């Protein structure tokens, strides 16, 4: 049976590990190959010799990692290698990269070491091509996926939403400061904002809420589907987001979904999400104030699309694996 080794250097709870866990548990992915997860430290690492038919990197790319990647490529010159880019996007670069030329050079060199680069959204892939980070032929778009069955089991919203949920780590990326400020500026006293999660910005976010009784901090979520069942709409004011698993979950649950007009969140708009094009506090206040009776046709379409996510995830990976292994056989025969 085909063996795929997945290299991971971020095993903290979050989107990357949720996708990795899905790969391990999903029946379709299990039929495709035997998946080995290889955790790696972010510093002080030795280059392992990986016994696998295909190596998939879920690693964080940077200049320090680059010599290590070169050694990995040299040791496994006959093994196809794929990199899944979970993090870097156009909006990430705008907010975090001071020297775009140097950053782009690092990505171009790193990407060149792999047979394929997996973009987790169409928006991310478009950015890669436009910036010349990789050729279009090298890029495969495979949207991230997890098991959404617990969310599909929830009853979809059928009335104007009043309880709004925000899910994720309390860190600048998620834009919860903007959402809280928008809620405080809203004149609607019938709305309630529940923030699920924790993180380094908790104290600042609590201070920003200033005791507004409409804003509640719910703490860490051990059961995301149960938490989703407590809300009627989901807001994602992220400053950058390669894909956005919470958006997939919200669509599967039949919740009204408001997302920032950035990166992979744009991909969800074609499947039922509402883009908040003005990402300012004023723009998000208008979006919250405009919450009304949902379009049930759009909600149903969003649920159907979300229900097929795991199928398409496995099918895309199957096509990619078959192509790379066939190319490997052809190269060996030559």
Automatic annotation (TrEMBL):
<dbReference type="Pfam" id="PF13692">
    <property type="entry name" value="Glyco_trans_1_4"/>
</dbReference>
<protein>
    <submittedName>
        <fullName>Glycosyltransferase</fullName>
    </submittedName>
</protein>
<dbReference type="InterPro" id="IPR028098">
    <property type="entry name" value="Glyco_trans_4-like_N"/>
</dbReference>
<dbReference type="GO" id="GO:0016757">
    <property type="term" value="F:glycosyltransferase activity"/>
</dbReference>
<feature type="domain" description="Glycosyltransferase subfamily 4-like N-terminal">
    <location>
        <begin position="18"/>
        <end position="148"/>
    </location>
</feature>
<keyword id="KW-0808">Transferase</keyword>
<dbReference type="Pfam" id="PF13439">
    <property type="entry name" value="Glyco_transf_4"/>
</dbReference>
<dbReference type="InterPro" id="IPR050194">
    <property type="entry name" value="Glycosyltransferase_grp1"/>
</dbReference>
């Amino acid at each position: 049976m085909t063996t795929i080794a997945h290299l991971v250097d971020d095993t903290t709870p979050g989107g990357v590990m949720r996708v990795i866990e899905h790969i391990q548990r999903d029946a379709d992915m299990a039929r495709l190959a035997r998946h080995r997860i290889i955790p790696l430290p972010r510093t002080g690492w030795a280059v392992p010799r990986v016994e696998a038919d295909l190596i998939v990197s879920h690693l964080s790319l940077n200049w320090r990692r680059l010599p290590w990647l070169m050694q990995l490529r040299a040791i496994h010159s006959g093994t196809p290698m794929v990199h899944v880019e979970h993090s870097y996007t156009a909006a990430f670069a705008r907010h975090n990269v001071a020297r775009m030329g140097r950053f782009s050079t690092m990505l171009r060199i790193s990407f060149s070491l792999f047979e394929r680069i997996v973009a987790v959204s169409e928006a991310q892939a478009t950015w890669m091509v436009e910036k010349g980070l990789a050729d279009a032929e090298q890029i495969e778009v495979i949207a991230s996926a997890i098991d959404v069955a617990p969310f599909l089991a929830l009853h979809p919203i059928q009335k104007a939403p009043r309880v709004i949920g925000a899910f994720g780590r309390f860190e600048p990326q998620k834009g919860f400061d903007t959402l809280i400020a928008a809620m405080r500026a809203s004149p609607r006293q019938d709305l309630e904002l529940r923030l699920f999660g924790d993180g380094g910005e908790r104290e600042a976010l609590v201070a920003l809420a200033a005791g507004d009784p409409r804003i509640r901090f719910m703490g860490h979520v051990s059961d995301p589907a149960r938490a989703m069942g407590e809300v009627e709409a989901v807001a994602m004011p992220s400053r950058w987001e390669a894909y956005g698993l919470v958006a997939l979950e919200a669509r599967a649950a039949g919740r009204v979904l408001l997302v920032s007009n950035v990166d992979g969140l744009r991909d969800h708009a074609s499947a039922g999400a509402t883009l908040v094009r003005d990402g300012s506090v004023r723009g998000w206040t208008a979006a919250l104030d405009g919450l009304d009776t949902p379009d049930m046709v759009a909600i149903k379409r969003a649920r159907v699309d979300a229900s097929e996510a795991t199928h398409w995830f496995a099918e895309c990976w199957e096509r990619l694996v078959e192509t790379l292994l066939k190319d490997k056989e052809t190269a060996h025969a030559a």
